[in-house]
Amino acid sequence: MPEQTVAFIGLGNMGGPMAANLVKAGYSVTGFDPAETARATAVENGITPAGSAPDAVGAADIVFTMLPSAPYVMEVWQDIVPAARPGTLIADCSTIDVATARDIHALAEANGLRSVDAPVSGGVGGAKSGSLTFMLGGAEEAMAAVEPLLAAMGRKTVRCGTAGAGQAAKICNNMILGVSMIAVSEAFVLAEKLGLSHEAFFDIASTSSGQCWSLTTYCPVPGLVPTSPANNDYRPGAPASMLVKDLRLSQAEATRANAATPLGAHATQLYEAFASAGHADEDFSAIVRYLRTLSADGQSNP
Ligand code: NAD
Q: pTM of the entire structure?
């Protein structure tokens, strides 16, 4: 049995199953989430509920946070850092901007704590099956200390660099995701217009130069790939609102770093338009339906 005790703050769609996998691996996990449903599911999965985030971390050796966005992360870290024992390691797995990630590392260090940024790829399916990829930023010693616990929740861990490097990798990766999902969806819409069957186009593109994750693992057209949310009317999945958040992060970082990302910028605009047209809660691969609507409206190149 592992001896380290764990606190998990934020037990939602991702944090809930991640904490449950730590319990399955034998860790003693105390958790906090203000949402009643999240707390109830966590208790069913063997997590000890705490009355507040600071209460959860007081006795922990390692703390994970998995929260919606940067303002939540900053607020929670400001609450939990003073409540943690010296030497405690805090890992933030949320997707947030690089500057906030560096700020929370500094906050932890100023209070004698160790920290890593550890955002994830793999979605809710990966969180449930324990097959996430973790992208780490921080001191080598802190990254090494957290890796055995990450092995209970994921299949791959990459040490990306110093504080904030994990978030940088996550943001760049998800910019590819936004662009590639639109590219695959556009190709299907054009193929339909040109009279190609979905099957014929998929058979070619999946074994040709168009091959990519958005096509062969998360295909936006139903019936071609067993793991696609498209097979279940695009629910549940990763909501378009979340990809909008990630794409906006990419554009904010691109502006700060003076990097030219014209396709990232256009993907952000398209996903913003798609989400605000009433599709924010649908899986992001449903953008294929939006492109069909634009085509029907005669907007061939919005
Ligand atoms: P979610 O909304 O399901 O979960 C977030 C949880 O945080 C909620 O249960 C909420 O009640 C809780 N919370 C809010 N304020 C809190 C507080 N003060 N203290 C404790 N808990 C609090 O979101 P999610 O899908 O689990 O995503 C979490 C993070 O993971 C986000 O940053 C997201 O971008 C990232 N992410 C999500 C996915 C995905 O597919 N869902 C994939 C990769 C990364």
A: 0.95
